[in-house]
Design goal:
Helices cover 39% and strands 17% of the residues. It is an alpha+beta fold and 64 residues long. A three-stranded antiparallel beta sheet has the order 2-1-3. The model has no long low-confidence stretch (mean pLDDT 93). The structure holds zinc ion.
Length: 64
C-alpha cells in the first residue's frame, strides 16, 4: 500500500524574479518555510522574511 502524501513545490522566481532556487518535495508548508528562511538569509540577506513576502511565498507554494 502506498498512501498519498502531498508534496510542496516552490520557485523563488515567482517572488524574486532573478532567483533560480526551486524547492521540491517538502512534506509540509512548515518544512517549506523553514527551508526558505535559510535560503532567504543566505541568498537574499534577510534575517527575517517580512510578513508581506511570507504572504507572496505562501501563494507561490504549489501543492501536488
Ligand atoms: Zn531566492
Amino acid at each position: 500500500m502506498v498512501s498519498f502524501v502531498p508534496k510542496y513545490e516552490y520557485k523563488c522566481a515567482d517572488v524574486v524574479p532573478d532567483c533560480s532556487l526551486e524547492i521540491k518535495g517538502a512534506s509540509s508548508e512548515e518544512e517549506m518555510m523553514s527551508m526558505l528562511q535559510v535560503h532567504a538569509k543566505i541568498c537574499h540577506k534577510l534575517d527575517k522574511v517580512p510578513p508581506a513576502t511570507v504572504e507572496k511565498i505562501k501563494k507561490a507554494i504549489k501543492k501536488r
